Amino acid sequence: MKKSLFLVSAAVALLMTACSPKYDAPKAKLNRADFQKEIDGKMNDLYILKNAAGMEVTLMNFGARIVSVCVPDKDGRFADVTLGFDNIDGYLENKSDFGAFIGRYGNRINQGRINIDGVEYQLSVNDGAHSLHGGVKGFQYCMFDVEQQDDQHLTVSYTAADGEMGFPGQLKARANYTLTDSNAIVIEYEAVTDKPTIVNLTHHSYFNLTGKAQSVLDHLLMINADGYTPVDDTFMTTGDIACVEGTPMDFRQPTRIGERINDYGFEQLKNGNGYDHNWVLNTHCPNCLATLLCDPESGRTLKVYTNEPGIQVYTGNFLDGSLTGKHGIVYNQRAAICLETQHYPDSPNKADWPSVVLRPGETYKSLCIYQFGVCEKTGCDKQDGSRQPCCEKEQADCAK
Asked: Do the domain assignments include residue 1?
C-alpha cells in the first residue's frame, strides 16, 4: 500500500513539474532559482518574456529590473546586450541601477530641495549635496508587484508612501511591459497621487550591443537633438540649454562614441567625466526617432522612441572594474551606455522647463520604446573608396 501511494505521489509530482511554467532563461543562461529570495517581506522572482522571433527578456520584482535582453546579431546569433548580475545577491550586495525602474524622480534635484505651491520639501540626498534617482532608497531598491499576463506582456506596480524619501503624496506607479514580435520593448508608465507631487520615471538598463560588455566606444550613436543641458562640476544642470553645433555633444549624425569622449578640454566632458548629460530632443511625438545606437561589429541596432522631452545619455564613466557581472564578466569603464528617456534634470527648480508636477485627479503617462534590429549594411563607402563603419539604412532614418 505504501509503495502504491509512493508511486502515485511520484506520478503527481512529475505531472505537476511537467505542467509548471519554466521561467529559466536559456538564452541568457539564467537560473530562476538564483533570483528567488524574500526581500522586505516579498518574494523576488524571475519572469521571462519571449516573442515569435526568439527574443528573450527577463525581469524581476526587485527594482522592477530588466535582468537580461537577448537579441540576434546580423547572423542570427543571440546574445545578452545588458549589464547586470546572474543572481539576486549580486544586486543586493552591489549598489547599482542596472536595469532598474527609476523613481520617484529620475536624475538629480539640486540640494534635494523642491517647492510645490509655496511649500518647501527636503528630499533624501544621496549624490553629494543632491538627490539622485529618488534618494537613498529610490524605486530601484524597492520590491514591485509583478503580474504576468502572457509570454509577451507583464505589469509592474509600486505604491510609494506619502513622505517616502521626502516626496509629498502617496504615489501609485505602474508600468506595462510589452515585448513585440518586431523585437521592441514597449514600456508604458502611469502614476497617480493624492497630493501635489513631482514625478519623472525612467528606465536604466546599461546596453552593450556587442553582447560582450567590454566597451561601447566603437558603437555609433545618433541623438536627434540640437541642444543639451550643461552641468557644473557637481553634475547639476546650470539652467541653460546649449547648442550642440561645433561641440563634442553633436550627435545629430551617427558618430563613434569614443571619437571625442576624452576631449576634456571641453568643459562639459570634464564635468561629466565623459558623456553624462541630458539632450533636449527635437522629437515631438513618439513616432519620431529620438536615438539610434549601432554596433558595427555585430550589426545590432537599438532605436529609442519616447514622448518625453529629453534623454539622459550616460556612458558608464564610473564603472571601474570593481564589479563582476553575469557569467564572470568584469565591468570596466565605458562598458555600456544608458539611454534614459525623461524630463530634464532638476526641472522642479527650473521654472522655464517642462513641468514635472502631478496633481490629484491627473494621470502621469510616459512612453519609452527600445526597438532592437540589425543593420542592413555595416559599412559605408566613403568618397575615397575606403570603408567607414555605419548603418546605411539607419543613417537615412536619422535624417527623418
From this structure: no
